[in-house]
Amino acid sequence: MAGNKYEGILLGMGNPLLDISAVVDEAFLAKYDVKPGNAILAEEKHLPMYDELASKSNVEYIAGGATQNSIRVAQWMLQIPGATSYIGCIGKDKFGEEMKKNAQAAGVNAHYYEDENAPTGTCAVCVVGGERSLIANLSAANCYKSEHLKKPENWALVEKAKYIYIAGFFLTVSPDSILLVAEHAAATNKVFIMNLSAPFICEFFRDAQEKALPYVDYIFGNETEARTFAKVRGWETENVEEIALKISQLPKASGTHKRVTVITQGCDPVVVADDGKVKTYPVILLPKEKLVDTNGAGDAFVGGFLSQLVQEKSIDECVRAACYAANVIIQRSGCTYPEKPDFN
User: Fold this and answer.
1) pTM of the predicted model over 0.90
2) Using CA atoms, how far apart are residues 4 and 22, in angstroms rounded to an integer?
């Protein structure tokens, strides 16, 4: 497989966050009014949580942010230097430097916009019984501006990429950047990929999501997000297969690619709606004692999927790689992985 053919083939844009991860108890979640398994943006009441997590003896700092996780996993699965690129905003600080080092070590070509005034964004990862709850304090990640994207050295990453992935979380930050890239993808027959990302995105950022959706060729999400997506649109169904099909049939801006919807359901089968048909795929089951935490599982799933998609493999192969990557990540703390994948 020639390296040059894959150079910069996959680009991600999103919110780079440093995960501050620790095992906590139910009382900790209750204290900060956090629901198990949810992903939310930090409010005033959550801010003391970051210091409290940092003071725990089991705390870990792991480079995160949903899109960045997916891109790192895709890069790891591909094992082709320079196949992936990433754009997002960090602060000029210790955490920002950490992030740059981490991206470089992962082999991802990161072009960060560095904000002078805001600190690098962080995400509190509270792990209870292996299940993660995420509270993101975007800080600098929230300061991304489309002016950075339009600079020739950054737009060159967009030009070079054939596949572009943006998690729904970026809709809260720079919807205009998303549309610039989405319109470019539609005009040049590239593949544009997004994620529902969290129930709050489907509920409170529906307008921005609605504007981007016609451009989306592949959409990912989990069962809770899919059901929320359906609920806000008044679809009278909780059936994930039905919802996946309806999402895949929503209008598209360009007819080049049909939309494929991929919905994960934890340990239940993955649902794929493609070309008017629904197919389900069992996941690799893991004994409970091997589960470390679910942080990054969905991101890794996407990363595994994309690693095969950019090689033009079948959907079956893409899902197989997705399930493999997610299975590796849930047996480790955060979105981390061994040196080499064992996938063939």
Assistant:
1) yes
2) 40
Rounded to whole angstroms, the Cα distance separating 132 from 184 reads: 35
Which tokens is 148 given? 């950075």
For residues 14 and 34, give the distance between their C-alpha atoms in angstroms, rounded to a whole number: 24
* SS3 state of residue 90: strand
Q: Determine how β-strand 84-91 pairs with β-strand 10-13.
A: parallel
Closest by CA position to 310, among listed 193, 180, 195: 193
Contacts of 86 (CB under 8 A, 6+ apart): 11, 12, 13, 14, 16, 67, 68, 71, 103, 108, 109, 110, 111
Tokens 């993808």 sit on residue:
185
pLDDT band at 73 (very low <50, low <70, confident <90, very high): very high
Contact residues for 118 (Cβ-Cβ < 8 A; gap 6+): 91, 139, 140, 142, 143
Dihedral angle sign, alpha carbons of residues 234, 242, 212, 120: positive
Do 302 and 308 meet the contact criterion of CB atoms below 8 Å apart?
no
Measured distance between the N- and C-terminal CA atoms of the chain, rounded to whole angstroms: 14
Q: Is 276 exposed, middle or buried (0-12, 13-18, 19+ CB in 10 A)?
A: exposed
95 with 151: CB under 8 angstroms?
A: no
Residue with tokens 């082709």: 80
Catalytic residues: 299
Is residue 3 scored above 80 in pLDDT?
no
Beta bridge partners of 86: 12, 110
- Cross-sheet strand order for the sheet of 60-64: 39-41, 131-137, 122-128, 17-23, 60-64
CA distance 332 to 328: 7
Confidence of residue 2 (pLDDT cuts 50, 70, 90): very low
